[in-house]
Amino acid sequence: MAATHGYEVHTGTFAGGVPEPVVPGAAVPAQAVPASAAEPSGDGRRAAGRPAGYAWAIARIGLGWIFLWAFLDKVFGWGFATPAERAWVNGGSPTTGFLKGTGENALGGVFTGLAGQGWVDWLFMLGLLGVGTALVLGAGLRVAAVAGGLMMVLMWAAALPLETNPFVDDHLVYAVVLAGLALDGAGATWGVGGWWAATPLVRRYPVLR
Fold first, then answer.
1. Distance between CA atoms of 128 and 24, rounded to whole angstroms?
2. The pTM is what?
């Protein structure tokens, strides 16, 4: 018990664990503040409610739409990056155009050999769809960061040497943003990340957060 401005402030507890009263305006002991109130627990809640959380949410949804749009345009050939005659539904190969164009690059011999192979097309398209969906929804950001980051690094490697920068391009920046989204739990703001992290499946397998 300590005296503060003429008042006696109790900082201990009564028998039975009931907290003693604290005089208004007096400092509250650190142990009196529940840990859950000091810092929200659970993946996807660190960014929630903070101004940075909204910035991360906008970046997450915007980047997710980039992945999803690439998937849709390559499937249906809506004429933005893929003409209708080269659409996947019309027998086109989503990876051939990009990979064939790497022939003169440093690793062109590796990547041109993958152009047009069915398993490469399927992996690439599933990656676009899965990463884009996870980002827009805000669920599974850890898996999306790994898968999307790998895709971006491979596309960066296929473009080497870069034409407009010694070693950094948008693919590497996207990979870093993906990592930041996952590490900061950016799925809770404008997303289902908080709910997803609390499901029994994700509690059992946290890597799915």
1. 56
2. 0.76
Residue 193 near residue 43 (C-beta atoms within 8 A): yes
Q: Which pLDDT tens digit goes with each residue over 113-147?
A: 999 899 999 999 999 999 999 999 999 999 999 99
In total, the chain counts a number of residues equal to: 209
Determine the Cα angle at 118 with ends 61 and 161, to 5°. Answer: 65
DSSP 119-178: HHHHHHHHHHHHHHHHHHHT--HHHHHHHHHHHHHHHHHHTPSPSSSSS--HHHHHHHHH
Q: Residue type for 105, please?
A: N
Closest CA to 150 of 166, 167, 130: 130
Token pair for 158: 């296929």
26-57 pLDDT, tens digit per residue, is 554 444 444 443 344 444 455 555 788 899 99
Q: What is the mean pLDDT of the chain?
A: 84
User: Which class for 108: exposed (0-12), middle (13-18), buried (19 or more C-beta within 10 A)?
Assistant: middle
Query: Phi-psi bin for 189: left (phi > 0), alpha (psi -120 to 50), beta?
Result: beta
The CA distance from 191 to 138, in Å, is: 5
